[in-house]
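Hello,

Our lab assistant flagged a job as stuck in the queue for most of the afternoon. It eventually completed. Since we weren't sure the result was trustworthy after the delay, we are filing this so someone can double-check. Below is the sequence as submitted and the structure that was eventually returned. Let us know if re-running is recommended.
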Amino acid sequence: MQKDTNKNYPASFDDLIRELESGDYKHLQIFLFREKPNLGFVEDERYLVVNSNGFGLYKLHDLDYKDGKIQLEFIDPETNKLATVTLDIHDTQPDLFIVNWKDVLDLAKDYQPDTDNELLELDREQEME
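-- returned structure --
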């Protein structure tokens, strides 16, 4: 792994990914996945972006790394406006989490009650009274 000669950060995005995979920079694991961790992202896929100011649904347009900073570009799907977030890799408490929207939908679906079964149970309870 190559580090910039004057700085204490990985020289390239590939070097940063290797360090993340080896366990360094765990605080940068801002992409949250329901089933298994994944360091990659799918361009133009929708993500729930959460920070201390709130949350919203965005498309991840671009992800870049330079000089110890990760730059994420999001597009608001309703307005098509671009929003950029920059993360310093040495900030051990990033104010950002990104959750794949498909995972959110799957989670909601898994916890959605089966209304047909609930109605049948209610009917049976009423019949017993």
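-- support follow-up --
The delay was a queue issue, not a problem with the job. The result is valid. The first strand starts at residue 31 and ends at 32. Helices lie at 13-21, 101-110, 115-128.
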